[in-house]
Amino acid sequence: MAAPATPDAIRDVNTRYHDAAAVEYDHKWGIDFHEIGRGQVLGKLRKGLGARAAGPFAHALEIGAGTGYFSLNLVQAGVIDRATCLDISPGMLTTLENNAASLGLADRVDTVAADAEHLPFDDDSFDLVLGHAVLHHLPDLDQAFAEFMRVLRPGGALFFAGEPSRLGDRIAAYPKRGAVRAAPAWRRLMGAEPVAAHTGAQPNGNRHDLEFAVDVHAFDPPGLRAFADRAGFADVHVSGEELLANWFGWTNRTLEASARPDTVPWGWRQYAYRGYLALQAVDRALLEPRLPAAVFYNLIVSATKPVSATKPAGA
Ligand SMILES: C[S@@+](CC[C@H](N)C(=O)[O-])C[C@H]1O[C@@H](n2cnc3c(N)ncnc32)[C@H](O)[C@@H]1O
């Protein structure tokens, strides 16, 4: 299925896909709100913001907050005092509210269903605007970055992570293709049963068809940087993370997706998870300091709103 042509169609497909994905989302992506999840989120924030990552930020706005992976972990870690979590999918926000309630954070987190390109907030409202794995879903990134700039207070920080790099995405296609070919043998080895063929008549609203339509961008580092530059941000920095960890992760995820989840052995899941964490450490220590950002699978962009920011003409 080709990407939908109009911005409204992209927003609509994102809303429907993520509404349908919301209940199983945390399980599917291994989202954790305890020590491991906090460690992951803090590690990424440090890569983007350096010493500023310690915060505390009095009021943060998360764009495309999903089920709360970043905001809820950062509130628990004491980096954010209060989080406003915005998402276009009401279904994801319902899961986020449930997660916040079960973690005892409901009074420090509020949710807003809205589009990232039209933020329903006053100018200079937030100390930090952040997001994870969301920019690649937004049709008009210049409009979105202009909004991030507007709602940040002067001196406030911008941070987005988990954005697919164009080259990294191309490189990751090889392990994914290999895993598709190896899947039948892997299932036999694991004693796992094949997942039922997709019929298009599933109760979750054709989610698998939509999956290919929600991602509208992959970035190269200069292109990603240019959105922040054009919006008027200062101290713009783009870095890359995860290479070996991503090859390993995508291979395993592709294998697992070919099997009925309840038939994938627990031992395999442990191996896949621990292997991913170990390779992340190798990437961090050896590859990220040495290789160019473009070869990694995920990009991080961070920046600051200048204290003397002037509004673009006509704003
Ligand atoms: C890949 S998920 C990431 C969720 C979360 N940040 C995480 O890391 O788990 C992308 C999120 O962006 C949201 N999204 C997509 N398009 C959006 C838009 N135009 N405005 C606001 N949120 C949007 C989706 O609904 C979804 O929750």
Q: Taking all residues together, what is the mean pLDDT?
A: 90
Estimated share of beta-strand residues: 15-25%
Spatial strand order of the main sheet: 3-2-1-4-5-7-6
Please give the count of helices.
Answer: 11
Number of strands: 7
The main β sheet shows up as: 7 strands, mixed
- Rg result: 19 Å
- Give the overall silhouette: globular
Q: Extract low-pLDDT stretches.
A: 198-206
Order of helices and strands: HHHEHEHEEHEHHHEHHE
Give a written overview of the molecule.
With 315 residues, the chain is an alpha/beta fold. It has helices at residues 7-21, 25-29, 35-49, 69-76, 90-102, 141-151, 166-190, 207-211, 221-231, 244-257, 266-287, and strands at 57-63, 80-87, 109-113, 126-132, 152-164, 234-241, 298-304. The chain is globular and about 60 Å long. Residues 198-206 have low confidence and may be disordered. The structure holds S-adenosylmethionine (SAM). The site of S-adenosylmethionine has 19 residues, from helix 1.
What distinguishing features does this structure have?
315 residues; alpha/beta; seven-stranded mixed sheet; 46% helix; binds S-adenosylmethionine
Write the layout of secondary structure elements.
Layout: H1 7-21, H2 25-29, H3 35-49, E1 57-63, H4 69-76, E2 80-87, H5 90-102, E3 109-113, E4 126-132, H6 141-151, E5 152-164, H7 166-190, H8 207-211, H9 221-231, E6 234-241, H10 244-257, H11 266-287, E7 298-304
Parallel strand pairs: 1-2, 1-4, 2-3, 4-5
Antiparallel strand pairs: 5-7, 6-7
The structure holds S-adenosylmethionine.
